[in-house]
Amino acid sequence: MRFCLIVALSLLVGGCSEQGAASQDPNAPVKVEISQMYVTVRNTSGLALNELSITIVPVGRMTTFSKFLGRLENTESRDVMLGEFFGRDGTPFNLRAVKPRSVEVTGKDVKGKTYSLEVPWR
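Given the sequence above, the corresponding structure tokens read:
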């Protein structure tokens, strides 16, 4: 009985921990993971990324909420708290008030190649 409970809990926790990761290409140069408190971006492109920006896009695209990261080295990952995202007018992102549709990540590598990725919010 305990074994079944442990297996059920581990499946539940494992299924909720990496939103967005399952819908991404495993060979994508940038990986995005969404949790209840963070958006995590990981650079797997092989080169450093400059001008990296993360945007939370709500349903209806009313006001987007962005965070500029600047530079992200190869194999580096960065956790960005949801409270660090702001709209153009300075409005902070609030998951209770806004229903997100997706997360967009854009940036350029050091050779000038542009990367753009959109991951659905689930």
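The longest strand covers residues 49-58. Try to locate this feature in the token string yourself.
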